[in-house]
Amino acid sequence: MLPYLPATPEDENVILDQLGLKTADEVFHEIPQSIRLKKGLNLEGSKSELEVEGILKALSEQNLHAGNTPMFLGAGMYDHYIPSTVRYATGRSEFYTAYTPYQPEISQGTLQVIFEYQSMICAITGMDVSNASLYDGASAAAEAALLASSSTRRNQIIVSETVHPDTGRVLSTYMEQQGIELITVPMKDGITDLEVMNELVSKKTAAILIQTPNFLGYMEQVEELEKLIHQNKGLLILSVDPISLGLFKSPGEWGADIAIGDGQSLGNYMSFGGPALGFMACTKSLMRKMPGRIVGQTQDTDGRRGFVSTLQTREQHIRREKATSNICSNQALNALAASVYLTTMGKQGLQEVARQCYDKAHYAAETITKSDKYRLAYNQPFFKEFPVISSVSPENIQSTLLKNGIIGGYALERNYPMLKNCILYCVTEKRSKEEIDGLKQILEGMT
Amino acid sequence: MREYNKLIFECSKEGRKAYKLPESDIPSYELPASLARLEAAELPEVSEVDVIRHYANLSQKNYAVDLGIYPLGSCTMKYNPKINEEAARIPGFAQVHPLQPVETAQGALQLMSELEDMLCEITGMSAFSLQPSAGAQGEALGLMIIKAYHQSRGGSKRNKIIVPDSAHGTNPASAAMIGMDVVEVRSNKDGGVDVDALKEILNDEIAGLMLTNPSTLGLFEKNILEIADAVHDAGGLLYYDGANTNAIMGITRPGDMGFDVIHLNLHKTFSTPHGGGGPGSGPVGVAGHLEDFLPVPVITVKKNKYDLDYDRPLSVGKVKGFYGNFGVLVRAYAYILTMGAEGLKRVSEMSVLNANYMMDRLKEFYELPYDQTCMHEFVISHLKNNPADINTKQIAKRLLDFGVHPPTTYFPLIVHEAMMIEPTETESLESMEEFISAMIQIAKEAVENPEIIQTAPHNTSIKLLDEVSAARKPVVKWKGYKKDE
Prior knowledge:
The complex is a heterodimer. By secondary structure, chain A is an alpha/beta fold.
């Protein structure tokens, strides 16, 4: 007997009798013999809970992690504080063992959570409408580009070189499939080159996609970009770090048409890259073309407030090949985590987290560059990440930091060959002054 | 129990806080005014007690697998083991950064590499990518691989994909997502692919065929070898939608049936929870001739050292940031370890026996359009004795009154008033009886007291919801803060 399989031999006999069968194997008689497996699967035998626990613990102990090693690494995934309320709510199995809310009368918990999630995403981004979540920031960018292309009926997307490299890769993969032209604009001084952008944007451009703060941590010149694309009647897609919205102008305030981003920072563990969530919010005029699930408020037959999945004629289970996207499962439990995070931090907390990230990152940048060995790559406003150039090789720096029990930043040369010996450091609210000073001391001692 | 009907925004009171951060020991730095947010985001202001009560109350408005049988066809709502949840939360998994040096994440990479090998063995494929976030993303990736394969052989005009009329909606939607045209093939009277009709539409513009086997009708495609040969002979490739793999583990393998590309749903077959709609995980497996097209990065192992390889010139690219929904992979890995080879086979045996048992018990009362041995799920249609013309939606809503979850309704589209039932192997005889007796009771009510069905649900905390006006005048966010809106 296996713990997850309740059928006793007697139960199995009741079933076999009902079906007029002698053995379980007979129930597979519709499968041609020629493709039946002749021997058992070549996997190990069943293991007890204690054994499984032991194996997983041993594997996990081979990994360094943010719980035992201070991290100055960001580059798209961030070590932010996660309140205990998030673990509590996402650990409630009424949430995590439910399916997509197909029967609204017995799924009001999930549906209301999504409605509140949409409301809070709209609040922080300053946009009109949010969907119920997408897979991650990178695929949200691809979905936003497809939405822009279909709503403007234009076949060209312009993306800045300063977006996350994975965003660039995923975007290019999807655009290629649909035959949409994708143009990449280079950076100048760490931000999107406005002059080149000016030359490229035309009445053929469906949208420009800008990330701010960008992959290098710098704030982009959104005001100029917004004017440029809107003069050409195209759309502005802004990818943002949701934590930055506690301090910096929101996509709504910048005049964006579509706001997207990776929601991992909102109460989701880094988990070696997922699962977290992508978010997407847009203006009201784009609502009926938005991909993914949307929850709306309504009433029951007694006039009580309730929630349902709505505008479903956009979706694959109704429209099949004419749907606005193929997305079905999204990241609902991660959206729950984001909701609980935003609820717990609240109006003041989001500002305080953003402020602490900003101050600590600026203190770190100032401290590290006091030594003449290190300087900031460019002089631009930044949020919680900044690139530092030195004469010391990144490999040398990283391994020295590791020996001292610190996970260092991200070597930018991997994606930007011209940024030699350049490391992107990230400082969140979790880093203390002591840790930052410790980092500085080790860097100072490097030759 | 009191009825809870508050939005979190309605619990808000100025000045309340549910968090406390360490005091910053760093001076404040100036923020350029031109970049500063003009108006703070209107998030709730509540205490920690408010947060916990709110979400505890909301959770109680959900039905869930941990509360009872959830026989949604094609969704495989099996029990989600608790050890898997604990494993995914171990700090050495949950708090690992995807870009930290690979030598500091060897355990994570080893787990992924071993999981790839396990999935290869279970399905008979030669390589897997764990990158896709869900089944639909897996489908899109699988089709990209098929497209890239044809392009590499100069067959770029092969841009049509054949999809059976019984297929999941994601199949045609995924094809459209990657710019392929969909050609539908009809089902035969036994619910399988009509092989003659298939042969008629096969030509040199066909990239391949997407097939779910067992099909969405819960039936094994008996002609699979003939279908595979026909598609391959015409130069096409065969794609396996793994939504229904729960029926075949240790019994037969897609690789041995002739499939070239497959995706699995770890959140179905491999017990990871559905989370109210995600996160899922949709790994894609390929036969040997397609390995070069897998997305980057690919996990490599040399002398017991794991690494990530981005240098793959024929790769289709990337569909998701980083490497996949790792937290979901940890759960699936734990599940396969727990079950072992024999356990997985037992899963398929019991899931198929359970489905056949329920089908046999219900066919006296409900139309069974395909009366043959089913696999892990089956599809019934309307009531046999139905003087009041009760429809499937009404039956589903009445089932709510019995405290069980209804089946998948109105799918597959080729069955009128369809109800698709998948008990899974983790339901006991007793819990199946609970569902069966509710269905039989409804069949009796349909004759004796149809009104009780037509006006259902009666016992839920909320009654039938108005979906029409929700779509006509969408209210998709809380507007209470600004009364003038």
